[in-house]
Amino acid sequence: MPHTASDTDTPLRDAADRIDLDVEAIAACVDAVLSDGLYWFPVRHHSPMVARVVQRVISQRRPRVIFLEAPSEAQHLVEHIVDSRTRPPIAIYSSFRDDHHALRSAANLSGHGDEPARYATWYPLLSYSPEYVTMISAKQVGAEVVFMDLPHWAEMAPARDGDEADRVREPSPHDVEQLMFESGFYRALADAAGYRTWDEAWDTLFEIDRPERDFEAFRRELATFCAAARATSSPQRIADDGTLARERHMRRVIRDTLAARNIEPADAMVVCGGFHLFMDHADDADPPVVPAGTVSVTAVPYSFFRVSELSGYASGNRAPSWYQTCYDLDERGATDADVLAEHVVATLKAARKLGEAVSPADAIAVTQHARLLANLRGRVAPILDDVHDALITCCCKGNPDTDGHTLRKAIDAIDIGTRVGKVTDRLGRLPLVADFYERLDALGLGEVVEREQLIKLDLDKRDELDAQRSAFLHRLLSLGVEIGRVFGAGGELGQGAIFRENWQLRWSPKLEPALVEKSLHGDTVERAATTLLRERLHRAAHDADTSCRRLVEAINMDLPDIVWHAETTVGEAIDTDGRFVSLSGALGSLLLLERYATYRALRRERLTELIERCYDRACFAVPEIAASPDDQWNDVVAALLALAEATMQRDGLDRDVFVTYVRQAAALSTVPFLRGALLGMLTEVRQLDPQALADELASYAQAPPEQMIVAGDFLNGVMAVSRTAILLGAESLVRAVDELLSAAAWEPFLTMLPRLRAAFDRLHDRQRDALAGHVARLYGLAEHESLTQIETSVSAAAMIADIDRRVAEIMKEWEL
Amino acid sequence: MAKRTTKSDTSAPPTNGDAVLRRPAEVDYADQLEALRQHDAETAPPSWRLSPRAVLTYVLGGKTLSAELNGAQTDVEITRKFYGDDAIVERAIVTLASERALLLVGEPGTGKSWLSEHLAAAISGDSTLTIQGTAGTTEDHIRYAWNIARVIAEGPTPDNLIPSPTMTAMKTGTLLRFEEITRCVPDVQDALVSILSDKAISVPELPGANTVFARPGFNVIATANSRDQGVNDLSAALKRRFNYIHIPIVADKQTEIEIVQRRSAELLKRYALPTKIDKPIIDLLATVFREIRDGRTAEGVSIRSPGTTLSTAEAIGVALDAALHANYFGNGAVTPADIGRHLVGSVVKEDLADLAILKEYVTLVARKRGASDKAWQAFHDSAMVALS
To answer: Which of B94, B242, B246 sits opposite A376 (nearest CB)?
Structure first.
C-alpha cells in the first residue's frame, strides 16, 4: 500500500548525530555520484523493492548497455538466464581448479599432495533479485548486459597449510552487506531506532512503498545510506575482504567496454551493490590478474530453501516466499493489506494442518495486531518482524519456545516456501550430473528424482543389481550428495547384517547443486568418489582410526583400485599412530571388514596381518591412557571396552598381551577414575579377584579425607567397564561401599556424592537388584534362600514388604 | 477478590504525600506519567491517558523530559520499569489497544504483576481495579454483588448493586487487572467469556435498561503462573479471547544484576533503611541464583537444580532480607554472610529435598571458591550454619 509518511527520518538523523557524522560531506559525496554522466543504481541482493524500482528505471532510461555486478566468467549464461524456459530460483555456479598451484605458490606454502585446490561460489537469483530483473528488463529494452565482477578466485587469499582443498565461498554481495552491518553508522542507527536485526532495518527503510518517493528519491536515499555506511566502515576491513580489488576490476570493465563499443557514459547504466557506488575512482591501481586454471560455470536449479538462511546459506534471504508474495502481489496492483492477509492465512492454514487450533478469527486478530505493532514501532506498514510477533502473540498460548514449536514450524514453512527453479534445457548438463542421471536410470532408481517423496529400498548385496545400487548410493553419500540415509550397513562388531541395507531415499533441491559442486573431482560419480576418498586418505595418513574408516568406505563404494591403496595407508597409519583410542577404533573397523572379506574377495591374509598388528599396537598403547585428562575418559573407556571385546571374541589375538599392558597401565595410573576402570577391566577378564578390587575401594575408607573423597571416582571407573564383575563380586563390593560410607564424615560424603551417584547410575536394573540383595544380607535382614521358600505364605509376604521397606531406607540413606 | 471499589472513599489511592507501605504505580511514578503526558504528541486510543508510544517509553524508560510540575519546570527522568525483550512490552501494549485481552504468563517472580501494574497505571491512570484470583474467587467478584440488607428492604435497585472492579473498569473505560487467573476454578473464569465477547454485563435482577456496556478503553490484563499450568487451565473459549505473552526469566547475567541492584535500592528506600548493598555482593547473589537455577556452574560443573523457581524476584527478596538483617543485627553493611544466611528460605520451599541440593552446591562450589576468595568463604560458612 502506498504511504505518505515515514518515521524513519528521525532515527537516521539521531544516528548521524550519535557518531558525529559529517552529513554535508556525505551529501556531497552522494551528489557527485548521482550526477555522474554514467548512471549508477544501488541495489541489495534479493530485495523486491529494489527490483521494482530498477525495472522502472531501465524501462524509462532505456540504456544501451548495463554493467551488472555479477561474475564476469558467467557472461555467456545471460541468454540462458533470461530464456523463457528458465524459472527462478536458479543459481550461477562457478568453480575453479587451481591446476598450476597459483594461489598456493603465491604464498610459497606447501600444500597437501599434488591435488590442486578447488574453489567454488554460488550466485543465487530469485525472480525478484534486482540482478535478475535487470537482465529481464534489459532484454525488454534491447540493452546489452555486461557482467563486471572479478572472478571469485582472483580475489582469493592464498591457501594456508592444512586448509581443506575444497572451498565453497559465499557470494560477494554478502561480504559487502557484512561491511555495512559492521559500520558505525548502522550500529548507531540500530541503537537509535531499536532495530533488532539488519533485515528489520532494511525492510523498514527500503521495503515499504511510499508514493512520495519516486525512483530518483529512492536512489538518493539508498545511496545516502550506503555512503554513510561506507564512510564509517573500517578501511582495513574493506581492503582485507577484497572489495578494493573487485572495484578496480569493475572500473576496468566499464572503461574498456565503453571504449570498445564506442558508447557514451550517458547511454550506459551501472547496477551494483550500493557500497560500490562510492568506490575510489582515483585509485588507478591495476586489478588483480586472474589466475589460470580449470573453470566450470553453469546455471543450476535452486530452491527457496537453499536461499533461506535456515539452509545455512549466510547471505540468504530470511523468507524467500514472503518476499515473493510481496513482489508478485505488488506486480498485480495489490495492497500491503492483501500481502499481509494472504501470508497470515497461509501460515495459519499450515499451522492447522500441523494440528494447531487456530481460526479465521485469529487471522483477523493477527493482521490487526501486526498493523498496530508496526504503528507503535514507527513503521507505516507491517514488515515481516511485525507479522511474526503478531502470530506469536495472538496464536501461541504459552511459552513460544515450548508451546510455540508447531506454530514456529508453520511460520518457517510459509516464510521460506518450497519453490524449486528450473534452468532452460538449452543449457547442457555438466558431465558428472549427466552421469548421475544415467546411472540412476541404469540402476532402476529413476523414480527418486521424479517427485519429492520418501522411497524405501531394501537391498541384498548378494544380488548383483542391489550390490551396484548400494555402491552407487554409498558413493553419493561419500560425495556429500544428499539423496537419503542408510540403515544396517555393517555396524558394530558382531552386530547387524552384512549383506542387507535399508535405504530411505528422497529428492532434495540440494541434490543437483551438490553434484555440480563436486564436478571438479571427476566427470563420473565413480571417479569423483575415488578422487575425494584418495584425498581424504591422504589427509588421514597418520590417523589409524580414520584410515580404517576410509577403507570401510572404499569397500562399501566398491572401489577396488583404492582399496589396495587404502590397505597400504592403513598399514602405515597403524605403525605411526601411537594413540590408544585411535588404534582401538581402527581395530573395530578392521574386524568389521573381516566379515566382508568372504564375499567381497578381500585378501583375508592381508587383513589378518593388519588386524593382529593393530591389536598389538593398541595393547602397547594402553599405558598411554594412564594419565588421560577427564574430557577423554569417555572415549578411553569405550576404546578399552572395544579392545576387551575383540580379545574375547576373536581367535588369534593374544589375550596375555592385553592383560599385561592393562596391568601396567593400572600400576602407572594415579587418576582414581582410570585406575578404577583399569582394575575393573582386569576383574572383568578374570585376571583380578573381585575381592582385591573391593579391597582397593575399601582402602579409601582408611585414607585421609582429601583422598577418601575420590573414592567415588574410583568406583565410577570400575562401573564404567565392569559388567559381570559387579555380579560376581557384588558381596565384597557392597561391603567395601558400606565400609567407605561408614567411615566418611558428612562433608567428604557430600563431596563424594556426585561421583558415587554417577557410578550407580551406570548399573542396569539386574545389577541394581543384585546389589540390593547383598545390602539386605549385609544388614542381616533375611537369607536369600529363605525368601524364596516362604514366598507363598501371607506372613512371608508381609516380611518381604518389611524387608523391602528397610532395604529402601538403607539405599535412601546411601543416596542411591 | 476485589481490592477496591470506586464507591468507597476510604479506599481511594493514597496520594504521594500519604505515609503508606506501598503506593500504587500511578502515585509513585506520577511525575513521570505527567511529564510523558505533557510531551505526548500522538493520538491516544479512546480513554487512554497516554498514547501507546508514550506508554512504551514509560515502561522502557531511557529519556529525560522537561515538564512543568507543581508550577515549576523540572527535568524528569523516565526510569526503566521492565527489563527484558522490548518486544514483549510492545506486544502487550498493542494487545491492550486491540479487541483481545492480555494474559501475562511465566514463572513466579518474573515481573508479570509488576508489568501489569505499570501498564494499567500508564494507560488508565489507575492500577487498583484488581481481582486477585484464588480458589475462593466467585462469579460475584467478577461481575457484581448486592447489598443484601438493602435488597431485603428495598428490592434490587441500581443503588443496592455493588459493582465489581470489572464493572467499574467497564463503566470508566479503564483496565481491569486479574491476578493469578488460573487459581480460579473454570466455572468462575468463564464468567469472563461474555464480558470479553460482548463487552457488557447484564443485571437481570434490575428491570428495564439492565445491561452495563463497557466504554471504549476497557480491557483486561490477567496474569498466570506457568507453575499452575494444568491446574485450572483456561477453557478454549477464554483462551481465544486472550493474547498470551510469556515473560521469560532474565537470561542475561548483567541484566539480572542490574535488576536486583535497582529494585533492592528501591525497596531499601521504601523501608527507609540506611543500608547499602555493594555490587560485589549483588554479583555473588546473582551468581548463586543463576548457577543453581541453570544446574551448571561457571566452571562447567553439573549440579542439581531445585524444584523451586529461583526467579530474579526471589533474589531481590534475599537481598532485602539480608539488608534488614544487616541493619538491625549487623553494622549496616550487607555481607556475603548475610546472603548465605538468608538463601535457604528462598531455595527450599516446596520440597525438603531441595535442602540437600543447596547443601551440595554450598559444599561443592562455594567451599572450593572460598579457598581463594574471602567473600565466598564467608558465604559458605554462614550458609552451612543456616543449613545445619
So the answer is: B94
Q: What is the dihedral of CA A380, A384, A386, A388, to 10 degrees?
A: 160
- Domain range spanning residue A474? 431-527
Residue of B nearest to A395 (CA): B243
Render A505-561 in DSSP notation, one character per residue: E---TTHHHHHHHGGGG-SSHHHHHHHHHHHHHHHTTT-HHHHHHHHHHHHHTT-HH
Residues of B in contact with A18 (CB under 8 A): none
Q: Using the structure block, give the residue that is written with the C-alpha cell 473498569.
A: B169
Across the interface, whether the CB atoms of A372 and B97 are under 8 A apart is answered yes
pLDDT at A548 over 70: yes
Please answer yes or no on whether A393 and B86 come within 8 Å at the CB atom: no
pLDDT of residue B117 exceeding 90, the answer is: yes
Q: Number of structural domains, chain A?
A: 4
Q: Determine, yes or no, domain membership for B285.
A: yes
Q: What is the pLDDT of residue A781?
A: 64
Q: What are phi and psi of B26, to 5 degrees?
A: -65, -20
CB contact under 8 A, B236 and A357: yes
The ipTM estimated for the assembled molecules is 0.83
B218 shares its domain with B320: no
Q: How many domains in chain B?
A: 2
Q: Are residues A259 and A358 in the same domain?
A: no
Question: For residue B239, which residues of chain A lie inside 8 Å, CB to CB?
Answer: 397
Residues B203 and B267 placed together within one structural domain of the fold: no
Same domain, B58 and B155: yes
pLDDT in tens, A95-111: 888 777 777 644 433 34
User: Are B244 and A397 in contact (CB < 8 Å)?
Assistant: yes
C-alpha–C-alpha distance, residues B56 and A377, integer Å: 10
- Phi, psi dihedrals of residue A375, rounded to the nearest 5°: -60, -45
Contact call for A754 and B364, based on CB within 8 A = yes
A383 and A499 inside one domain: no
Q: pLDDT value at position A3?
A: 43
- Closest chain A residue to the Cα of B301, Cα to Cα: A754
Q: Is residue B236 pLDDT above 50, yes or no?
A: yes
Select from B98, B104, B387 the residue whose CB has the most chain A CBs within 10 Å, as the one to mutate to test that interface.
B98
Classify A92 as helix, strand or coil: strand
| Contact between B359 and A750 using a beta-carbon 8 Å cutoff | yes
In a domain, A684, yes or no: yes
**Residue B67: inside a domain:** yes
Residue with cell 538449452: A426
Which residue, A492, A527, A562, sits at the end of a domain? A527
B166 shares a domain with B300: no
CB atoms within 10 A of CB B243: 28
Same domain, A409 and A488: no
For chains A and B, count residue pairs whose Cβ atoms are closer than 8 Å. Answer: 73
Q: Would you say residue A564 lies in a domain?
A: no
Q: Residue A399 and residue B246: Cβ atoms within 8 Å?
A: yes
| pLDDT tops 80 at residue A321 | yes
B384: distance to nearest CA of chain A, Å?
11
pLDDT at A176 over 80: no
pTM of the model: 0.69
Q: Which domain holds residue B52?
A: 9-247
B211 plus B322 within the same structural domain = no
